Amino acid sequence: MREISCESIIQTVAEMCVEANLHLTEDVSGALHKAAACEVNPLGKQILASLEENLEIAGRENIPICQDTGMAVFFVTIGQEVHITGGSLTDAINEGVRKGYTEGYLRKSVVNDPLLRVNTKDNTPAVIHYDIVPGDALKLTFAPKGFGSENMSKLYMLKPADGVEGVEEAVLSAVRDAGPNACPPMVIGVGIGGTFEKAAILAKTALTRNMSEHSALPHIAELEERLLKRINDLDIGPGGFGGKTTAFGIRVETYPTHIAGLPVAVNICCHVNRHSVREL
Amino acid sequence: MTKQINVPFSREEAKSLRAGDYVYLTGTIYVARDAAHKRMSEALAAGEPLPFDVKGQVIYYMGPTPAREGQVIGSAGPTTASRMDKYTPALLDLGLLGMIGKGKRSQAVLDGIVRNGCVYFAAVGGAGALLSMCITESEVIAYDDLGAEAVRKLKVENFPCIVVVDSEGTNLYVRG
User: Fold this and answer.
1) B98 HSE (CA, 13 A, CB side)
2) For chain A, domain boundaries
3) Which of A138, A149, A117, A148 is nearest to A8 (CA)?
């Protein structure tokens, strides 16, 4: 049994909140630079250059890349040999969010109740997904999610007969509807299979995958490539003003499903696809 | 076309802008987003005054991150305008001349823009750090309890935005 203290989790989470909101991971910033070099639409090119400058200013001046520093989403993989000491793991993660968002000058964007809508003033609570695995490690993946793009996400319960064509149409329809609202260029996470809620969680997980790696499943890797091409042919472009850079990438995750179903979740993210990963 | 204009501007100037113009704004603009619009709408319904006279002004849909010491404002990019659509036609009819946000608008807002000769601008979504550099003063003037959603008065200098919908109803998001 390995012991991990709540104190170290709080500190780690607070650092992750600040880091993810000020700096993009290299796979995402690399995708931006590549697109800026390739875009041919003049206004699109100008917007991509502004986004490159924005990243540079954010890092240099300690200003969040985007003012929507998101609702704090965590994927926690906890080894079954780990013993958390000094309190509850969920409380420690929320305390880390409170500390990171307050001390890091990040925006508090969470309301206490979806209908009463009073700001909690510290960006808690986080949305936390736990997975228990063999071993004695604790892995935290933090993905703050802005709602300009979250609001454009969709869940479809397709029929098995709809097949891969139905999946592609569903994704294209979601991206088309999102258009300029989701701050394109977008990054798109797709979850196929499982149940209603499993598909949505898969789609969110897909957004945390490295943008430079395709799925290990050949038919899914092909689907990712085909969909990216079709999405970039929609002519939504940077800012929604046209161009061939509508998405930097699309990542698809799958799970076994029921004989009667084909759930498809499309989680849309803007170009500020932030995440931070730490292992304790 | 690239243009430098002072805000607030006249209705004639608003009408001279064309969808696709890249505009740099210098002057005073007001900030309000979801919760502030809801309160302003309730104030109008109750016959109470608005926190500022919208006549001839430009509203920026935005909720900044907190400023660090020495900074005027934190990250300050546009939020999705369609969430304000429910409240906007009434403000346009009261004389609101311009809006800065991002994304599509409802038909009722598009009609209000044409009816009153107004303009809808988009700023670059997700460029909050860059846009904060164009803000030289920021003051909360109402609804302080709303935190990031409070109403602010900003001084801006060469604030970049793009005309999406002009006074004739031409819409840059609609192509082909």
Assistant:
1) 32
2) 2-19+66-144, 147-274
3) A138
Domain A2-19+66-144 has CATH 1.10.10: no
Min distance B119 CA to chain A CA atoms (Å): 17
Chain B residues near residue A181 by CB distance under 8 angstroms: 80, 82, 102-104
Which region holds residue A234: left if phi is over 0, alpha if psi is between -120 and 50, else beta?
A: alpha
**Fold for domain A147-274?**
60s Ribosomal Protein L30; Chain: A; (3.30.1330)
What's the total number of domains in chain B? 1
Distance of CA A167 to the CA centre of its chain: 20
- For chain A, say whether B147 makes contact (Cβ under 8 Å): yes
CATH number at residue B33: 3.20.130.10
Does residue B161 lie in a domain region? yes
Q: Do B63 and A68 touch (CB under 8 A)?
A: yes
Number of H helices, E strands in chain A: 8, 10
A124/A119 Cα distance (integer angstroms): 9
Query: How far, in Å, are A6, A75, A123, B160 from residue A94 at the CA level?
Result: 11, 13, 9, 37
Question: CA-CA distance, A148 to A175, in Å (whole number)?
Answer: 13
Q: Do A47 and B173 touch (CB under 8 A)?
A: no
Contact: A51, B71; criterion CB under 8 Å? no
Which amino acid, residue A87?
G
Residue-level pLDDT, tens digit, chain B, 176 residues: 899 999 999 999 999 999 999 999 999 999 999 999 999 999 999 999 999 999 999 999 999 999 999 999 999 999 999 999 999 999 999 999 999 999 999 999 999 999 999 999 999 999 999 999 999 999 999 999 999 999 999 999 999 999 999 999 999 999 86
Separation of alpha carbons A155 and A147, rounded Å: 16
CB contact under 8 A, B102 and A270: no
- Distance from A79 to chain B by nearest Cα, in Å? 36
d(CA A179, CA A172): 11
Residue B138 falls inside a structural domain: yes
Residue B175 lies in a domain: no
C-alpha to C-alpha distance for A65 and B126, rounded to whole angstroms: 7
Question: Looking at this predicted complex, what is its ipTM?
Answer: 0.95
How many angstroms separate the CA atoms of B111 and A124, rounded?
Answer: 40
Contact A79, A133 (CB under 8 A): yes
